[in-house]
Amino acid sequence: MPTTRRDLLKLTSLAAAAAALPSLAFAQATAGAIPKAAKPLKILILGGTGFTGPFQVAYALARGHEVTIFNRGKRPSPEWPGKVEQLLGDRNTGDLKSLEGREWDVCIDNPTSVPFWVRDAGKVLAGKVKHYLFVSTISVYADGSKAGIDESAAVAEYKGKDAMAETMDTLRADIGGLYGPLKALSEVEARKQFGDKVSIVRPGFIVGPRDETDRFTYWPKRIAQGGEVLVPGDGDDPVQIIDGRDLGEWMVRLAENGTTGTFNACGPDYILTTDAMVHGCHAVTGGPVTFTHVPAAFLEEQQVGLPIWVPREGTPFSGYGKVSNAKAIAAGLTFRPLATTVADLLAWYRGLPAERQAEVRAGIPRDKEAEVLAAWKAKQTG
After folding, report:
1. In terms of DSSP bridges, do strands 238-239 and 272-273 run parallel, antiparallel, or are they unpaired?
2. Cβ–Cβ < 8 Å for 324, 333
């Protein structure tokens, strides 16, 4: 179906709106869509200008809370829908002076991946905040190969010499080997510093507007281009994703309710298969497209991997498509429809500069996809 002038106007409108997503949250609040919280809180957000942080800020403001963000000031701050206090410092160097002598009801720690960041925050904030929420990851689990991983599963063991000596630089140098174990130790440090007033939130793939990784974005972007699309596996492999807005807003509600504990923040609240994902994207993008399934074994031979998807058997991460989220749902985690995430993501993405949209940060280029599809068909007929 060709794109009409009405379609283009609609997409342009959506892109402009998505670029100001925090302002949209405030507009919804003033229209009554987001009710005020029963009790306003003083919330400190470590980070706040990355992926989920702006959604936390916007939602917290809409709920009537007082918000302070702490970061290095390296990223342009979004146009907040209300007053936000910004404190500057650098956790890499231990510069947390701007936090000293202050008190908040809640601290949300978004960017931490190394234990000494939590330790240093504890030195300044322990006893000064009533509730500490830490964003961890399902990568902390020692065995990600089985479906049904819940919060009681064993976590990865750090095998280095000194976890407190690990920095963001050493983590980036060995992200595959250190990420999960260091996040697990950061959780331990959080409980050490803040006691039982801790919420540990373990997301899987976070998607939606503001996602700069392009891991999920690859799919609606590619499907919108039309033609023959390579779909990995047989289409029945489960996929788990969570919209960054759902994650950020739920964390604010955890803070409001004083909910502590450990939670797998994975979505949705039903089994989403690879086929359901690609067809769900197509339902939003429209246009002529065909889907061709290519087995995992053949993709491995071709040394090709596709983002978000993992085979449901046979890999160290096969359980990542079916992690238990029952505890988080019981604690109030909700999910917006896939179609909403896809539409808002595309609107945001199409508002980015053309050179950024031309980048392939995840997935495979079109020529490589065509090459693999041709090789698969040749094998079938050969």
Report:
1. antiparallel
2. no
Q: Which amino acid is at 194?
A: F
Residue recorded with tokens 């003033």:
30
Distances in Å between the alpha carbon of 324 and those of 25, 240, 335? 29, 10, 15
138: tokens are: 């399902």
Per-residue pLDDT for 293 more than 90? Answer: yes
Computed on alpha carbons and rounded to an integer, the radius of gyration of the chain in Å comes to 21
CATH architecture of 1-19+209-240+270-314+337-374: Alpha-Beta Complex (3.90)
For residue 200, the SS3 value is strand
Q: 3-class SS at 369?
A: helix
pLDDT tens digit sequence for 321-338:
999 999 999 999 999 999
Question: In this structure, are strands 289-294 and 227-232 parallel, antiparallel, or unpaired?
Answer: parallel
- Cβ atoms of 205 and 139 closer than 8 Å: no
Extract the tokens encoding 319. 């359980």
Q: Give the Å distances, CA to CA, from 168 to 142, 183, 208, 308, 330.
A: 21, 12, 25, 24, 34
Q: What is the DSSP string of 138-194?
A: GGGBS--SSTT--TTSPBPPP-SS-GGG--HHHHHHTHHHHHHHHHHHHHHHHHHHH
Q: Both tokens of residue 223?
A: 């499907």
% of the chain beyond a pLDDT of 90: 86
The end-to-end CA distance of the chain, in Å, is: 35
On the 0-12 / 13-18 / 19+ scale of CB atoms within 10 A, 197 is: middle
Residue 23: pLDDT band (50, 70, 90) is: very low
* 103-122 per-position pLDDT tens digit: 999 999 999 999 999 999 99
Does residue 120 come out as left (phi exceeding 0), alpha (psi in the -120 to 50 range) or beta? alpha
> What angle in degrees, to the nearest 10, is found between the helix axes of 274-285 and 338-350?
60
CA atoms of 337 and 322, how far apart (whole Å):
18
- Chain-centroid distance of CA 146 in Å reads 22
Which two tokens mark 275? 């086929």
The ranges assigned to domains in the chain are 1-19+209-240+270-314+337-374
Amino acid at 205: F
- pLDDT single digits (tens) 246-255: 999 999 999 9
Q: What is the amino acid identity at position 36?
A: K
